[in-house]
Design goal:
This protein has helices at about 5-10, 50, 55-65, 95-100, and strands spanning about 15, 20-35, 35-45, 75-80, 80-85, 90. It is α+β, with helices and mostly antiparallel strands. The strands form 2 sheets. The chain has a 4-stranded antiparallel beta sheet, with no helix packed on it. Strands 5-6 form a two-stranded antiparallel sheet. The mean pLDDT is about 80.
């Protein structure tokens, strides 16, 4: 198993199995497993960068002002569905149909 540094993944463009752009990795979610942190999912797409803002009243107001909460484009992609063997070009390991199941509603909506 190769080591991949998370800072090499953050901000990278994610591509479908057919080379279509899905969006950028905006957030990497990990959970504690004993003394380790285990990556569970990647947040990809236009809304992912703003998702954290929606946790505050001011953030929600800003998102509403710029109509960002109405935009589609946040995918919560499970760890096993993203090939990161080439950190410069991560790609999905699922079909476009399966990707649709990973589309998330923005939090706070």
């Amino acid at each position: 198993m190769a080591t991949v540094h998370l800072d090499h993944l953050a901000g990278r463009h994610v591509f479908s199995e057919h080379g279509r752009s899905i969006g950028y990795i905006e957030e990497i979610i990990a959970e504690r497993d004993g003394s380790d942190l285990v990556v569970t999912e990647f947040h990809v797409g236009i809304f992912a960068a703003f998702e954290r803002l929606s946790a505050s009243t001011i953030g929600t107001a800003l998102l509403d002002f710029f109509a960002l909460r109405q935009r589609e484009g946040l995918y919560r992609i499970p760890w096993g569905k993203l090939d990161i063997s080439d950190p410069a070009r991560p790609r999905l390991l699922c079909s476009d149909e399966e990707l649709a199941a990973f589309k998330a509603q923005p939090e706070g909506k």
